[in-house]
Amino acid sequence: MWGRRSIARAGVAFQARPLTVRPAPLRTIHLVSRTLPTRPRLRFPALKTFTPTRHCSAEVRMMASQERETLPDVAKPINYHVSLFDLQLGGSWGYKGTLKIDLQVTRATTEIVLNSKEINVQNAEILDKDGSQLAKASGITYDKKSERVALAFSQEVAPADVVLSINFTGTMNNAMSGFYRSKYKPTGEVSADTPKEDDFHYMLSTQFESCDARRAFPCFDEPNLKSTFDFEIEVPKGQTALSNMPVLSEREGSTPGLKFVTFEKTPVMSTYLLAWAVGDFEYVEAMTERKYKGKSIPVRVYTTRGLQNQARFALECAHRTVDYFSEVFEIEYPLPKADLLAVHEFAMGAMENWGLVTYRTTAVLFDEGKSDNRYKNRIAYVVAHELAHQWFGNLVTMDWWNELWLNEGFATWVGWLAVDHFYPEWNVWSQFVAEGVQQAFHLDSLRASHPIEVPVKNALEVDQIFDHISYLKGSSVIRMLSVHLGRETFLRGVADYLKSHAYGNATTNDLWSALSKASGQDVHSFMDPWIRKIGFPVVTVAEEPGQITVKQNRFLSTGDAKPEEDETKWWIPLGIKSGPQLATVDTRALTLKSDTVPGIGEDSFYKINKDLSGFYRTNYPPPHLAKLGQSLDLLSTEDKIGLLGDASALAVSGEGTTPALLTLLEGFKNEQNYLVWSQVSASLANLRSVFSQNEKVAEGLKQFTLRLATPAAERIGWEFQPGEDYLVVQLRKLLISMACNAGHEGFVAEAKRRFDLWADGKDVNAIHTNLRSVIFGVNVSEGSRKAYDAVKAEYLRTDSVDGKEICLSALGRTKDAALVKDYLDFVFSDKVAVQDLHSGAVSLAGNSKVRHLLWGYIKENWDAVSNRLSFNNVVFERFVRMGLSKFADHQISEDIAAFFQDKDTVAYDRALVIVADNIRTNASYKERDVALVLEWLQAHGYA
């Protein structure tokens, strides 16, 4: 699943993503009014927490697994037959279901416990294989907290292969989880039997990861309780039904106008991967070039009627990616079809259901000529990420949720591998370093971080680890390992791992064993600390005659790691480039707390961590940092990004200085690479945010940005050329934005001119599609209510797939307090989909002039705000974390803590810890460096 916590950027598709890849970039949500269950808080282990490894005895490992809160092991599912019928397509939105589960009862029992949530079990019985009744449930009890239903039988059920038969009812909710409905406004004619209420039509689909299959039907909802599935559903004859497998047959429904659609049996898989959808669908199709069992496989992208032409780019990516991964993993795509579905209301970015991958519309639809071309990059990546899961996650599944990173970290890395294969001109590994690695660094530099592999006692805790650690740190560490082992060796080991565990479950140690065998190295020994310990190191360099000393310590953004927090000895590939042209590479690793590297000394020219392939910061002596800054032409794009990212982070922690960072930034005036400029922009944005409340420093940093960006912005200009390179398009947009936000009079005037032509209707094409975000944002920021109202009206009328996202972010740029109030009222109205609420939080949090008004609004309107957010835990967590993390004031941090002290924060308690950590970091940085920054700005003529 992608984008669950980001993106975030979900992930990592482009900077400042509203999502976040699951993740997401940039994996947002729509939810139903419901009472959220009280879920146990996720407890993150201290550094000393013991984690069983391959060296442990079987008994110790078993003890660890027994600490999990899992279903009783008296029965194991072999096959489910799920039949849904009598769907109420409007009103109550209820449905009925029958369920027959082939069970292997392993020991005598009078009770069978399944997972169930918001499902009413009407009756249950145990049948022999020939259909005769063995036992009937005499009692049905529910535990809402643990989301379970217990079926009690008056007579004992003996160990045997039996069938558990259940009749139940459920609801097609509007919470974007379980079996749910999505509203939309169609673009053309719709089938007469398409569900409709008020002004909206509806489609139906599922979202089961992590623990919401139980919300659609009673089941054994744990990843290692794999089974096959037979599925059928009764739908209107004019509607299309989809599921993991192809349609097996259709028959008449219970009443005229209805039909039962039956699907082929699935392979063995986890419950969270089962999926189905019903709607007024159309599709575009391509056949794979590779032959599978002698024939090509159909790859389709489904949309609601009228949108299928916007699915062609995703289709182009998808059919080629299926073939590419079949080759890379040395295992043919295992299903007879591959469907992708655009879902109008979707909490995350996408979900990897086997054979029926679901996506939010902006992650799969692209309207040529109307969509911002950054979405092509996003779509290519998200499509690849989810298709990678068809092998890594679906074919071979993590044994338990603590190893979520096995699914998500690998799918993130190999998703970018596929995009790089098909679009090498996009330079996506530099993008990954600029966005993915840097975001992972940021979260992992907080005390609120957690190890990549987190002990998960109760599966209901797992929502809180769909974050940048599982996705982005996980993929960064995989990238580091693949560089060390060599990509071919690494992929050979992955292929062996997949073959060995196909249709089963596996652990991190299983992957390490396969990679150790493929490489001849003990991968366990040097990778376990990266996976099972919290944080990452900073390598500090000290120069001496004829040698350098390198020392590793845990890096914290506050720069105050305590001895007990700094005990880990990481294996660190140093990747030292040296020589006049940095042409010599030393691949040694640092395995001790401190070591010396001979042959490189204080007079040498060197660069550590080649291409930022290692997941660590590097702290150079100030003279050497300056020397690197004067030799940028010798550095790779990744090296430049890493140099800037390190200098920025070290300035924040106090291990470096902000003047050193500013001096380094000055050297990038003539840079021409978009991805390097994106890191320059990110570094400056953080400086301007942290020091925004000091008027002299804020104005000085504004002037610094203006002088730095102006030559490049004026050089690239406003006009797009036909067939222009993707990265050039992105660079133009970024530089124009930087110049406008720094007050460049000419660029601001031109942005206003184009906006006025568009807003007054004189030239509807005055704003290039790739400049909507910039021009809308500048005019709302610099303009009056007229500009704000024009963008708000565009939000309400746009039919562009990315239009609402762009407008909502632009509206949050206003500096007018009255308009901020209007904006927040609008965000929390029914005009804005719940899945997009985080866009309002992100936009206002980045608006230093008025971000305090967001916090004030939350406090003053808490009942209404929490009501709207509490439809879903993911929405709530994302809004709190993204909306409150940018402050740089200890007093505000205390105010936030006091406000939430008496609230039920179970949905976002970890977000509050992250918020507190971020604010503490920002405030300490501001207090420590504000005078120093002002002094430097004045000395260099910026203030």
TrEMBL record:
<dbReference type="GO" id="GO:0016020">
    <property type="term" value="C:membrane"/>
</dbReference>
<dbReference type="InterPro" id="IPR024571">
    <property type="entry name" value="ERAP1-like_C_dom"/>
</dbReference>
<feature type="active site" description="Proton acceptor">
    <location>
        <position position="386"/>
    </location>
</feature>
<dbReference type="GO" id="GO:0043171">
    <property type="term" value="P:peptide catabolic process"/>
</dbReference>
<comment type="similarity">
    <text>Belongs to the peptidase M1 family.</text>
</comment>
<dbReference type="InterPro" id="IPR042097">
    <property type="entry name" value="Aminopeptidase_N-like_N_sf"/>
</dbReference>
<dbReference type="Pfam" id="PF17900">
    <property type="entry name" value="Peptidase_M1_N"/>
</dbReference>
<dbReference type="GO" id="GO:0042277">
    <property type="term" value="F:peptide binding"/>
</dbReference>
<keyword id="KW-0031">Aminopeptidase</keyword>
<dbReference type="GO" id="GO:0005737">
    <property type="term" value="C:cytoplasm"/>
</dbReference>
<dbReference type="InterPro" id="IPR014782">
    <property type="entry name" value="Peptidase_M1_dom"/>
</dbReference>
<keyword id="KW-0862">Zinc</keyword>
<dbReference type="GO" id="GO:0006508">
    <property type="term" value="P:proteolysis"/>
</dbReference>
<dbReference type="InterPro" id="IPR034016">
    <property type="entry name" value="M1_APN-typ"/>
</dbReference>
<dbReference type="Pfam" id="PF11838">
    <property type="entry name" value="ERAP1_C"/>
</dbReference>
<keyword id="KW-0482">Metalloprotease</keyword>
<keyword id="KW-0645">Protease</keyword>
<feature type="binding site">
    <location>
        <position position="408"/>
    </location>
    <ligand>
        <name>Zn(2+)</name>
    </ligand>
</feature>
<keyword id="KW-0479">Metal-binding</keyword>
<keyword id="KW-0378">Hydrolase</keyword>
<feature type="domain" description="ERAP1-like C-terminal">
    <location>
        <begin position="605"/>
        <end position="920"/>
    </location>
</feature>
<dbReference type="Pfam" id="PF01433">
    <property type="entry name" value="Peptidase_M1"/>
</dbReference>
<protein>
    <recommendedName>
        <fullName>Aminopeptidase</fullName>
        <ecNumber>3.4.11.-</ecNumber>
    </recommendedName>
</protein>
<feature type="domain" description="Peptidase M1 membrane alanine aminopeptidase">
    <location>
        <begin position="313"/>
        <end position="530"/>
    </location>
</feature>
<dbReference type="InterPro" id="IPR050344">
    <property type="entry name" value="Peptidase_M1_aminopeptidases"/>
</dbReference>
<feature type="site" description="Transition state stabilizer">
    <location>
        <position position="471"/>
    </location>
</feature>
<feature type="domain" description="Aminopeptidase N-like N-terminal">
    <location>
        <begin position="93"/>
        <end position="273"/>
    </location>
</feature>
<dbReference type="InterPro" id="IPR027268">
    <property type="entry name" value="Peptidase_M4/M1_CTD_sf"/>
</dbReference>
<dbReference type="GO" id="GO:0070006">
    <property type="term" value="F:metalloaminopeptidase activity"/>
</dbReference>
<dbReference type="GO" id="GO:0008270">
    <property type="term" value="F:zinc ion binding"/>
</dbReference>
<feature type="binding site">
    <location>
        <position position="389"/>
    </location>
    <ligand>
        <name>Zn(2+)</name>
    </ligand>
</feature>
<dbReference type="InterPro" id="IPR001930">
    <property type="entry name" value="Peptidase_M1"/>
</dbReference>
<dbReference type="InterPro" id="IPR045357">
    <property type="entry name" value="Aminopeptidase_N-like_N"/>
</dbReference>
<feature type="binding site">
    <location>
        <position position="385"/>
    </location>
    <ligand>
        <name>Zn(2+)</name>
    </ligand>
</feature>
